[in-house]
Write a structure and sequence with these properties.
With 368 residues, the chain is mainly β. It contains four helices and 37 strands. The model is unreliable at 1-56 (pLDDT under 50). Bound molecules: 2-acetamido-2-deoxy-beta-D-glucopyranose (NAG) (3 copies). This is Right handed beta helix domain-containing protein.
Length: 368
């Protein structure tokens, strides 16, 4: 098996195990958020019990959807391995507890817009973060919309992350407004998820900020109308030690003031995983007052841009589609384009510092 095949194989083994654990509804504690019966509001001691007996009792006593959600996190922190199913919308009126142990949540099929089914949402009311984890646990979120968070909808500092079929809408934060994956964390796998109108108000990564992780994949995702104050209107990645894969994903109308209207990737770890951009489209992204309308890649990495299309991107200071920033020395930036490079590439400081080829071989087998 060649290197790329091995990478995909490892990534898919990881995805498969994550999918399996994410979709066992109920888990061993058998708790379903939507099935918790309402209790008499006046029951004495309910609030105390909510804090005290967390394995199941807290969920039974919780009244509002918001309290049930908080109780689910508290139960997971106490060791429950249930996959929680949220069957109502939640608008936060206070911060949720931090996630400290493995936590899996899934939106149920009960929420409606008129008669049409839609994802249930958790709304941060433009005041609160939604899911926050600092511990190295595993967080899995499926079929939910996370919206209007302030400070990051999913702020998952060191946890492994699995996100499937979600939407992140109108979140704001200093950086990584939808999904923040900080230093020292595990792998990530994000599938069939849309990121719309998320805004990094101070820094990089309008929707997603990734720093020095192992690696991971965004597959079949949509990034639309996200913006960053500095780099990477949709995603900013400050490198990982293992491959970073973006596949079959569409980036439309994202913008950044510091370069890389859709993506910016900068190496930051001693070992730098290759970056694969496969079968994806970049349309009308914009680097405002900066370079690289769609993508910026910086020195000391290997980038593989394969079967991807570019149109209508704008780099107002050059590089309508890409800016490739090389460095001196033997660790220069290498990029292959398959089948061939788009126009609108700006080389910094100039073309001698970046190695590029038009070839499909370094892509490995392309996804069909
Ligand atoms: C947490 O999840 C990870 C990744 O799925 C798994 O390897 C680990 O065993 C889980 N930990 C617990 C305590 O269940
Ligand atoms: C997101 O913000 C836009 C623009 O303000 C608004 O039109 C839209 O309804 C908002 N969507 C959600 C889900 O809050
Ligand atoms: C991306 O755009 C293409 C072309 O419009 C479309 O066929 C594909 O379904 C889109 N992908 C996603 C994940 O929405």
């Amino acid at each position: 098996m060649d290197r790329r095949g091995l990478i995909l194989c490892l990534v898919s083994v990881y995805c498969w195990s994550a999918v399996c654990s994410a979709f066992v509804v109920g888990g061993k504690d058998g708790l379903r958020l939507g099935q918790v019966p309402p209790l008499d509001r006046a029951e004495p001691g309910a609030a105390r019990k909510l804090l005290g007996d967390v394995r199941g009792r807290a969920l039974e006593l919780a009244q509002s959807a918001e309290d049930k959600l908080a109780a689910a996190i508290t139960a997971a922190n106490a060791g429950s391995s249930a996959v929680y199913v949220l069957e109502e919308d939640v608008v936060l009126t206070k911060p949720l507890p931090w996630i400290e142990k493995n936590f899996s949540i899934k939106g149920g099929a009960t929420c409606r817009a008129g008669s049409a089914p839609r994802r249930c949402f958790i709304d941060g009311a433009k005041k609160f973060q939604i899911f926050v984890a600092y511990m190295p646990c595993a967080v899995s979120i499926a079929n939910l919309e996370l919206r209007n968070a302030l400070g990051g909808a999913a702020y998952l500092k060191s946890s492994a992350v699995d996100i499937d079929g979600c939407a992140f809408v109108n979140n704001t934060a200093e950086f990584g407004a939808a999904l923040y994956m900080g230093l020292g964390g595990g792998k990530f796998n994000v599938r069939a998820t849309s990121f719309v109108n998320n805004r990094a108000t101070q820094n990089a990564g309008g929707a997603v900020f990734i720093s020095a992780r192992e690696g991971g994949e965004f597959a079949s995702c949509v990034f639309r109308g996200n913006s960053a104050m500095t780099k990477g209107g949709a995603i900013a990645q400050f490198s990982g030690t293992r491959p970073f894969v973006i596949s079959q994903s569409n980036f439309t109308g994202n913008s950044a003031r510091g370069g890389g209207g859709a993506l910016w990737i900068t190496p930051n770890t001693p070992v730098v995983g290759d970056v694969f951009i496969l079968g994806s489209s970049f349309v009308k992204n914009k680097a405002m007052g900066s370079m690289g309308g769609a993508i910026g890649l910086e020195a000391r990495l290997k980038g593989h841009i394969c079967g991807s299309t570019f149109s209508g991107n704008i780099g107002s200071r050059g590089g309508a589609n890409l800016v490739l920033v090389g460095s001196t020395g033997d660790e220069s930036l290498f990029v292959n384009f398959c089948p061939k490079r788009p126009n609108g590439i700006l080389f910094k400081p100039d073309v001698r510092y970046v190695a590029t080829i038009d070839s499909c071989i370094p892509c490995g087998p392309l996804p069909s």
